[in-house]
Amino acid sequence: MNTGYFGAVKKYPQELRYISIARFNRFWSGEKYIKLAPPPELLKIYDYEEYKKLYRTKVLDKLNPYEVYADLGDLAVLLCYEKWADVKQGKSFCHRRLVAEWLEENIMGLKVDELEV
Predict the structure, then answer these.
(1) What is the distance of C-alpha 71 from the center of its chain?
(2) Using the 8-state DSSP alphabet, how is residue 20 labeled?
(3) Strands 113-114 and 76-80, how do they pair?
(4) How far apart are CA 75 and CA 27, in angstroms?
(5) Residue 98 in contact with residue 52, Cβ under 8 Å?
(6) pLDDT tens digits, residue range 55-91?
(7) pLDDT tens digit sequence for 27-58
(8) Beta strands in the chain (DSSP E)
(9) Contact (Cβ atoms closer than 8 angstroms) between residue 90 and residue 32
């Protein structure tokens, strides 16, 4: 399993399973997994620590990580909007990496990397 962003999908290996975990994307016609999408009220929060706390309590704490992993599978690439370079530089944050951390914390031996382009 990996994470990535919509803008780089065409540059990623085509044999993987690309799944949007964003609530809204009018240009994405592929698979979606709305269970991991942040609720609309979180989209207005710009403080990372507050966002992280609320995303955990409103979304992740209500899900079973083993069921999520079983639904998505090894070939899944969880997609959202933020460019990886911006996330690495601290210019933005993304919930896909919070999902990755949550899965890694709860499923022994699982590593969820960001796809690089």
Answers:
(1) 14
(2) E
(3) unpaired
(4) 22
(5) yes
(6) 999 999 999 999 999 999 999 999 998 877 777 777 7
(7) 899 999 999 999 999 988 889 899 999 999 99
(8) 2-5, 17-20, 31-32, 76-80, 113-114
(9) no
Backbone angles phi, psi at 112, to 5 degrees: -115, 105
- Say whether 28 sits in a helix, a strand or coil: coil
**E strands present in 6-75:** 17-20, 31-32
End-to-end CA distance of the chain: 16
Spell out where 2-112 has E strands.
2-5, 17-20, 31-32, 76-80
Length of the chain: 117
pTM: 0.92
In Å, how far are 57, 84, 109 from 18, measured between CA atoms? 26, 16, 22
20, two tokens: 């949007």
Dig out the tokens for 19 from the structure.
Answer: 């799944």
Q: Where are the domains of the chain?
A: 2-112
